Amino acid sequence: MLVVPHPGSSNMAAMCKNVLRSTRVLRKFLNSETGSVLQVRYRHPTKYKKRDTWKVMLIEDETVPSFKQRVKELTAADLSIEKNIDISCPAPSRTSQKTMVTKSDVEVKALEHQARHRTLKVPLDEIQNDWYNEIGFEHIHTVCKHYGIYKDLYGDAFFISRKVMKISYEDIDEHSDYLNPVYHGNRLMPSETVEEPVVDFDSEEDSLWTLVLSTPDGNLLDTDKEVLHWLVGNIPGNEVGKGDLVCNYLQPFPLRGTGDHRYVFVLYKQDRQVDFSKYQRTKDCKSLSGHSFSTYDFYRDLQDDITPIAVSFFQSHWDDSVTNVFHNVLGMKEPAFEYDFPRHWLPKQKLYPHKDSFNLYLDRYRDKKDLAEQVLKERLKKLSPFEPEKIPKYPAIYKLPNKTSWEQTQEFYKRLRSGFWRDL
Questions:
Q1: Bridge partners of 228?
Q2: Could you tell me the end-to-end alpha-carbon distance of the chain, in angstroms, rounded to an integer?
Q3: Predicted TM-score of the model (pTM)
Q4: DSSP codes, 161-203
Q5: What are 244's strand-pairing partners?
Q6: Among 1, 77, 151, 196, which lies 20 to 30 A Cα-Cα from 232?
Q7: pLDDT tens digit string along 192-214?
């Protein structure tokens, strides 16, 4: 920004001197190719304290690119590479359009009567199939895109599911008939996924399929690759047990302190018999390096023979069963990650703090070990080695003891397990 005298100023000598100086400066902004100069904008001098001065703003000419424009040009993506490549199977043709089903008044009254008496049976399987055929697959595509499944597995490619996989893990308790299903982002604990799941899908008898289970999270050796947990190829029909076992099932082992990990099932439709010897793992493969896998390279190598047609995934975070996987299966020490939080800043302690409860004020400056010791002693008072711990369902409804206000507040926090009493 340059400051020169106003053309109408009475101080002509200063004006001429500053104009000459500004002319020399403006020469530095000349474009050698076009001879154009940066644009000049004037502002009224009465808006400033010095009435005989004039502020000149230099605006960069469009012919001279700025630093940001040059950086943008140098870092621009190659437009010749097509983004968002669709690799999905062609959608089946719909020969008939959806027709509205109308019911007579007698049928409607009968349904209302059954609903009131709670005898109405709703065909959930039919409703779910209709949802999948109409908008369900689009919803699945949106969920997978939101969780970054396509980006982490296929880069710039994506696909839309055309089939439904029914995946469920059997409960580890032999006397339980409970199943842990896999949908699209639901949470399952590692202890619930110890054994390989049961996978079912609609298929023709003479068709071949490939099933892959991998996670894009948690590869300690190569962050650009995934961990392969299961791979079965050349599956005849929907009989997964009769397919070629390329990689044995490995229980998910999300690392401690890293949050939820995504475990993705992808079903591929084969056009012909495929040789998976390149990806074959030995039955006793217990090393983490042996389970490194890249879905991107896998599909790029076999894209002429396989096409992704269905996807399901679940999320899981650490529990005690992960320790067993590292020690007894992978044969390595279990890593643990912790976030080093910055130390909370506190101002210098005052002798007479105003507008603050003295007990809460003093607790801020106490050592964390002292607070933990106080909580532990209070917890040991309530525990008994002969009786189970009794935790009231509604602890805040009981009357507080007749004590001072700060002691009542402390007792209230104890009951709610709030503040530093959360570990009580």
A1: 214
A2: 64
A3: 0.65
A4: --S--EEEEEPS-TT---EEEE-EEEE--GGG-SSPPEEE---
A5: 233
A6: 151
A7: 999 999 999 999 888 999 999 99
> Which H/E stretch holds residue 15?
helix 12-27
Within 8 A by CB and 6+ apart from 359, the residues are 406, 409, 410
pLDDT of residue 284: 78
What mean pLDDT comes out for the span 31-54?
45
- The burial class, CB within 10 Å (0-12 / 13-18 / 19+), for 241 is exposed
Pick the residue with more confidence: 22 or 307? 307
How far apart, in whole angstroms, are the C-alpha atoms of residue 290 and residue 252? 15
Residue indicated by tokens 């403006």: 26
Per DSSP, which regions of 257-376 are E strands? Answer: 261-270, 292-293, 306-316
Q: Which residue has the tokens 């005690």?
A: 320
Structure token pair of residue 83: 């983004």
Smallest CA-to-CA distance from 189 within 322, 313, 314, 317 is with: 317
CA distances to 106, 160, 200, 388 from 148, in Å? 50, 14, 25, 45
d(CA 411, CA 419): 12
Please name the amino acid found at residue 421. Answer: W
Which residues, 6+ apart, have CB-to-CB distance to 270 below 8 Å? 207, 208, 209, 210, 233, 234, 305, 306
DSSP states along 119-171: -----HHHHHHHHIIIIIHHHHHHHHHHTTHHHHHHTTEE----S--EEEEEP
Q: What is the DSSP string of 370-383?
A: HHHHHHHHHHHHH-
Helix (H, G, I), strand (E, B) or coil at 69: helix
For residue 245, the one-letter residue type is L
| pLDDT tens digits along 325-378 | 999 988 889 998 888 778 788 888 888 888 888 888 888 888 888 999 999 999
Q: Report d(CA 44, CA 195) in Å as an integer.
A: 80
Band the pLDDT of 143: cuts 50, 70, 90.
very high
279 neighbors 248 (Cβ within 8 angstroms): no
Closest by Cα among 312, 313, 314 to 161: 312
